[in-house]
């Protein structure tokens, strides 16, 4: 946990930056007085229903296809515990800590709206686990994305009861009861409706969407940096990125991307031939000339996905819900379609931006297209292979990204004896988008590694100050052109420099903030 970084959880919507802070930086959470009051008011209504004779789904009935079974009052606490235990049925590898923390935070945010009917003490247990760094073990498989992310959230709820495995703040996998005791947290004994309220939401897929949005915002800026370096080292022109040309097609993402390219290439000595008229080439290949059109379209898609995420962050997702007038009503808001669609949608531009990046890399390696650079950028072509196989690695990732762009949300397998006869598969869409984001990071890293070598090989011509700053930052970790050497560690080093924003920061040290 970072000192002094606290996210306030009230009845209102969460900020995406707060999700990232809690999920990735271990920021603490604090339930506001308004949230506690809202939960207490809704809880009183649930307790009235629990004591009454009128059937209420999830309070005095079974779940899903068993909703017609009336549950006697003395069995209702057992009903909630049984729900959590039976639904904690995930399988496969454990998902990442940041994903689980994001999911826990988002469920806490919904509880804090006062529309779920849980006791404030139950929400405080969840907050306490976040603050103590206790992360339930949640598995890769188990969610159909409708009634939300049931199995993943059930593993969280199980840990709140002191059951199942968790990862503690030191990174050890231990029994939940042991971790809770060490942190001074009392396990929850769920009462009427609480089991259902803890597991019925889109929090897993939404958490992964919010994290992906943060990553892709940075990666699309990085894609512009990579494109600028490639345009420069391949002796392309930046005239096509002029603002008045971009204005003829007023997509905001395209304008932002072109502005980045202009800023990155300003003052380039390598491109002097285009300034003095000595270069006679009139058009560059599409992968150079159309970079802002593709990266810009990706930005606009990202913008739409961010809009959907903001709406979901303002939602109170449960079934049934406690309304402000005291009614408790069943609904279908747990269906993950809105989130699932944009998770799938984002995988398409991720694949396409990566595909264009790979095509620029390939141009560097072919003497018929690289305008005077050595074959494969090798020190002694034939003896040395240069970046020949780095492009193979890039191409393998791009091929995988194309497969990951196939949507998950078009699939549906009926469940719960046909009561849940249409599901979103949003969790699956989120899992493949995470893999796609990692793949794009790696593809851009290979392009930047290759373009930096191309820029160095243009010496004594000098690069633009901004692209030069990126090359200089890269050279702190990776040596310049020379005989063949073990290439895999160099690729991984650049992957880290992309992921931790070092290369964006290097560019912005010259240009100022990029889009």
From TrEMBL:
Record-level Gene Ontology MF annotations: histidine ammonia-lyase activity
Question: What Gene Ontology cellular-component terms does the record carry?
Answer: cytoplasm
User: Which chemical reaction does it catalyze?
Assistant: L-histidine = trans-urocanate + NH4(+)
As recorded in UniProt, its EC number(s) are 4.3.1.3
GO biological process, any: L-histidine catabolic process to glutamate and formate
Q: What is one Pfam family matched by this protein?
A: Lyase_aromatic
The protein's annotated pathway: Amino-acid degradation; L-histidine degradation into L-glutamate; N-formimidoyl-L-glutamate from L-histidine: step 1/3
Q: What class of enzyme is it?
A: lyase
Q: Which UniProt keywords apply?
A: Histidine metabolism, Lyase
Q: Where in the cell is it found?
A: Cytoplasm
Kindly give the NCBIfam families that the UniProt entry links to this protein: hutH, PRK09367.1
**Which family does the UniProt entry place this protein in?**
Belongs to the PAL/histidase family.
The protein's name in its UniProt record: Histidine ammonia-lyase
Name the source organism: Spongiactinospora rosea
Name the gene: hutH
């Amino acid at each position: 946990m970072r000192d002094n970084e606290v996210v306030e959880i009230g009845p209102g919507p969460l900020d995406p930056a707060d999700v990232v802070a809690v999920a990735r930086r271990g920021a603490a959470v604090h339930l506001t007085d308004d949230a506690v009051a809202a939960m207490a008011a809704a809880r009183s209504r649930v307790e009235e229903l629990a004591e009454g004779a009128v059937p209420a789904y999830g309070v005095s009935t079974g779940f899903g296809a068993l909703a017609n079974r009336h549950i006697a009052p003395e069995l209702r606490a057992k009903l909630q515990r049984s729900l959590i235990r039976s639904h904690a049925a995930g399988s496969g590898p454990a998902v990442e800590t940041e994903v689980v923390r994001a999911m826990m935070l988002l469920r806490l945010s919904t509880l804090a709206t006062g529309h779920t009917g849980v006791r404030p003490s139950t929400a405080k247990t969840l907050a306490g686990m976040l603050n103590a760094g206790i992360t339930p073990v949640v598995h890769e498989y188990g969610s159909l994305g409708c009634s939300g992310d049931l199995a993943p959230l059930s593993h969280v709820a199980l840990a709140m009861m002191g059951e199942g495995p968790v990862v503690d703040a030191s990174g050890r996998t231990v029994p939940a009861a042991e971790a809770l005791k060490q942190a001074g947290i009392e396990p929850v004994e769920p009462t009427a409706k609480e089991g259902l309220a803890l597991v019925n939401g889109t929090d897993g897929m939404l958490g992964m969407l919010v994290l992906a949005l943060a990553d892709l915002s940075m990666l699309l800026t990085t894609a512009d940096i990579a494109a600028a370096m490639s345009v420069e080292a391949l002796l392309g022109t930046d005239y096509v990125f002029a603002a008045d040309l971009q204005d003829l097609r007023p997509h905001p993402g395209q304008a932002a991307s072109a502005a980045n390219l202009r800023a990155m290439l300003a003052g380039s000595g390598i491109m002097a031939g285009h300034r003095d008229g000595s270069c006679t080439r009139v058009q560059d290949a599409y992968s150079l000339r159309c970079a802002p059109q593709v990266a810009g379209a990706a930005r606009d898609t990202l913008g739409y996905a961010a809009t959907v995420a903001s709406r979901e962050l303002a939602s109170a997702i449960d079934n049934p819900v406690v309304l402000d007038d005291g009614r408790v009503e069943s609904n279908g808001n747990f269906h993950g379609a809105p989130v699932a669609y944009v998770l799938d949608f984002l995988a398409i531009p991720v694949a396409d931006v990566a595909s264009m990046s790979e095509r620029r890399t390939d141009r560097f390696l072919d003497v018929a297209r690289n305008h005077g650079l050595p074959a494969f950028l090798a020190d002694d072509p034939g003896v040395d292979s240069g970046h020949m196989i780095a492009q193979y690695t890039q191409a393998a990732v791009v091929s995988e990204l194309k497969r990951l762009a196939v949507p998950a949300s078009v699939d549906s397998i009926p469940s719960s004896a046909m009561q849940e006869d249409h599901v979103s598969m949003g969790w699956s869409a989120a899992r493949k988008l995470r893999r796609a984001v990692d793949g794009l990071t790696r593809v851009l890293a290979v392009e930047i590694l290759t373009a930096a070598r191309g820029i160095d090989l243009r010496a004594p011509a000098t690069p633009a100050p901004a692209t030069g700053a990126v090359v200089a930052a890269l050279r702190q970790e990776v040596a310049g052109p020379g005989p063949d050497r073990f290439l895999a560690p160099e690729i991984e080093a650049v992957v880290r420099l992309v992921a931790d924003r070092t290369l964006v920061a290097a560019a912005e040290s010259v240009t100022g903030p990029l889009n």
